[in-house]
Structure prediction request, 754 residues.
Amino acid sequence: MNKILLIIQREYLSRVKNKTFILTTLLTPLLFVVMIAGATYFSIQEKTAHKIAVIDENGFFKTNLKNSNDLIFEFPEGVDTTNYIAKGYSDILLIPKFNGTEKTTYILRSKKSIGLIVQEKIEERINTAIEDKNLQDNGITKTMLDSIHSQSQFAKLKTEQQAGTSVKESNEGLAYGIGYGCGILIYITMIVYGMMVLRGVMEEKTNRIAEVIVSSVRPFQLMAGKIIGIGAVGITQFLLWVVLIFTLLSVAQTFIPHETLEQVKTLQQNGGVMPGASAMQASDAAQNLYNVKHTLGTANWSLIISCFIFYFIGGYLFYAALFAAVGSVVEDLQTSQSLTLPITMPIIFSFFIMTSVIQSPDSSLAVWAGIVPFSSPIVMMARIAFGVPSTVPYWQLGVSIIILILGFLFTTWLAGKIYRTGILMYGKKITWKEMIKWAFTKTA
Amino acid sequence: MNTILELHNLKKYYATQKAVDDISFNINKGSIFGLLGPNGAGKTTLLRMITGIFFADSGEIIFDGKKFDPLNDISKIGYMPEERGLYKKMKIGEQAMYLAQLKGLSKSEAMGKIKFWFQRLEMQSWWNKKVEDLSKGMSQKLQFVTTVLHEPKLIILDEPFSGLDPINANLIKDEIYGLAQRGSTVIFSTHRMEQVEEICDHIVLVNLGKKILDGSVNDVKQQFKENKFGVKLYEVPASLNSSAFEVIEQKANALTVKINSGYKSNDVLQYLIQQNLTIESFNEILPSLNDIFIQLVEGTKATTRAFQKI
Prediction:
């Protein structure tokens, strides 16, 4: 036992002290934040106003087409498709004569290609304009119309979840986000740290240190020590990321002025919609940040985090043992590729199952994929975000956990048998078939 | 109990070959024992069983008077395998500490012993270097130190001199003698017969998984001698005719003679004296281990076996 600790210690320290590890651990959250900031920045930048010249052959759009900050419709004289740029317009909209019943095609010509969202917005404006025109034709006055429009956004859907007698605020979007995030995280860690185990085992074999070590410890101890050591590296890296990201988030929050934050708060407390000017003053970013913080609070974090840690460790152990087995029979990364394929395929496949499960976390595919240990770490994590026991009954969670534990005990046992034969064998090309044969026939 | 290791009918069969097929021998305490054999003879498998890496299919290993218990006894064994290496990125001091602790030494014990050996082999300045910065000879020296550091009762060295220059090879050789004198037993596995002749007290030759020779170096040589003698004369006559011997080779005034059965060396001398020839030297030519090795192994399928699949 003492010897396994020594091995774990070496595996852990030699990686944690490594410069690349320190750099990736520190830089990844920064990169993450920079990427989000960059994306936000560019999305704001993209909101340059479109000044659109409208050539209308019908004559009623002038009063009905609504302007906004980013879309300005003007009806100038003497502008056509040849000179709209010179006259200072970014786009030109050609509205043909229409009879009100048929579908008509409008043409929007721009000097730059416009985005899909802008395109949809323009389309929506035009349709609203036509709708308004039709309503007005049928006797509804302009003032009536305006008052109808000002009330049309009043309904806001708030979903709640029944758990026995208590009712809880539910948030499908958040569950989706958490489930997806956890699934991706487990997917990435299983592949990244699995490959790290593979490389570590292979390095011991090609450096010819394996036989020296196994004359001091059992091969199984060496393998187990390596798997646990690298797993501990993974947990360390993960925890550091959590701490760093939260630190960066709170640092980011201090950049938002206090008043804005207060405005957002009152705004949110009043049900999200507040007539008057303050809604416009609170910046979008601050609102988003408040939203993120508020909705995050509705999730059952203690359950999600403890399940995440379990499935992270369980999934890692399940696959790392298999990666170790492959590492023990290969001597370079090229030859390892054909052997790792049967391991990485189920991981990638579970990821695709997860993307479908997240749409319908109650489906029978979701139930089964959450129990089979090949896919359960990724799939179950995505389901748990939707709620226990409302979406995932306790028995399913229990069965999934027990089967995953049995699963990694089995793969570790299997890998141990392959490992102790493979690690001492040089210059031979081994196939999965032979590896399975070693596992089930001869004891070394 | 004078033996450190007894092997009784050890067997280890793989799917397609008998790697070790019923081998038994004893090794005395404090001796330097040579385990010889061509490539693929089963030496490595045998050594892996002695070091607890493999389990025998059948047979028994008695270590230091008791049934071999791999979990506890491996800390009393130091094994330097033929395929050996070290962690390239690890510092030498840390590496030695790690390997010593894996053999069950405490931190302070390990530190003391490493300092002792590093000083003895003039390696003190290496502590913070990495293995990848060492030459092959230097890393072999480090490997040797890590093998013997924990003062094992049984030291197993597989081709210990490969990659060493003659000066360092001598240094290690002296250390091997020293360890044997201080009571350790050394198993020495190699193809280099001149080293075996020089160092070993006792040898065992295995081929095709079976033991084919067992004895002290001297006994083995006596067993395989062909009654050849080297005779040097000041003057060599045109012909020598005696029923006692035949000349099988002549180089200037040095003759190699083979004594016919039923005669003794004295009969040769008597004849030469009678012929009034002045003898410069007269000595028995014993076969070298190399000759015996080749004679025993050649013609068997030893080399083809090495390429067989396991």
